[in-house]
């Protein structure tokens, strides 16, 4: 499907006799945040063991693999590659052994000055195993002369810029770190006496843990036998929570940035209905991403909701196309129209975003072929006009249809009767927050963290944007 790609999911637990099993289950709940690789590292108090594999969590581990990572503290990661190719070498956790002892690290986000730091480190003799931006943090850590593990972590993390929610495992402690902007979510919870940190609260629900609070932007949490220690060693920065977590990435049953995703997403639909009403017979969500907004749209507009598109949940990452002659096979294998709901109807088709427009065009065609008399596309976020550099895989600006086409041109391309987006004000009012506390750069093209002007990294960003990046 033509979507921004989820970034990564992280999980950590301290003080549970089945830490690896709990991490496995936590990763299961976070699978939507990354499907390319999965990994778990666990400590038995003396050694850290690790198990990583390509593919889904269910395929990556079996009982034998989990038995090989014993201990009461563990961290885990699901990955979709945002920086670095998709291969096992780039899978996380990354485990190293250095002067400070063993350490394993999981990262959600993207370090914008990774190239600059990496070039410096290579010049000073560092040898990198992977091409992921995360490895830079570990090299900085290994070189730190700080006396304690915590100080070495702080010293290394202080040098990186951008988006990072980190969970770190040492022989006897779990450390959670969130960047001062708070781009990516990171929640703290309890499971009896055990402490849990994870990207989304849905991972806590699965293992029966209770959400306590978010790890705060700029906060470092050290969990050890002595308890939890919290401190904020980084200079404060303007908050930049990723609004796209609420629009699309996070699961609707999660709380992120302290808000229910379902509530925010349903609100987006309600506001969209007020801003962009249209006479119609049925509101149809594009499953699964458009469901909550469509429910809000239907509720607000009074137009009944109909599940006019059914998603096949059993499609794997790859499938073999049996015949080239089946038109739009990729979309058809994932979605099928329900003729009894669509035939002869004026349809409001609700989705969360349009990226390139190619999939949306096929879906509109599918709804028409099932007999819809009119198709009105309603999108529960503003036009996506700029790529993301904070941990989300997005196409180049030139490939984003809203960056290069007028609304009328988009309507023509989709072959819809009308197309309308939620306004930026509408988006912000749905999260009921000051605009300044959220990043919405993919809708504005204005970026909260400045880009380093090092040659390679900067040129790469400029190429992706087709112009000079603009920083606030
Ligand atoms: S640019 Fe968009 S996707 Fe990236 S962090 Fe900002 S809001 Fe999220």
3D structure, described in words:
- With 472 residues, the protein is α+β, with helices and mostly antiparallel strands.
- It is built from 18 helices and 23 strands.
- The strands form six sheets. The chain has a seven-stranded antiparallel sheet with strand order 3-2-4-1-10-9-11. A six-stranded antiparallel sheet has the order 5-6-7-8-12-13.
- The protein is elongated.
- About 1% of the residues have low confidence.
- Bound molecules: iron/sulfur cluster.
- Iron/sulfur cluster (SF4) binds next to helix 8 and helix 17.
Question: What is the element layout, followed by pairings?
Answer:
Elements: E1 8-14, H1 19-29, E2 37-43, E3 48-54, H2 57-60, H3 63-67, E4 73-79, E5 94-98, E6 101-111, H4 114-123, H5 135-143, H6 149-157, E7 162-170, E8 174-178, E9 187-191, E10 194-198, H7 202-207, E11 210-214, E12 220-224, E13 227-231, E14 241-242, H8 243-249, E15 255-256, E16 259-260, H9 261-275, E17 282-285, H10 291-301, E18 309-311, H11 329-332, E19 335-337, H12 339-342, E20 346-351, H13 358-369, E21 374-379, H14 401-404, H15 407-414, E22 418-421, H16 424-430, E23 438-439, H17 441-444, H18 455-465
Helix pairs in contact: 5-6, 8-9, 9-10
Bound molecules: iron/sulfur cluster.
The site of iron/sulfur cluster has 11 residues, from helix 8 and helix 17.
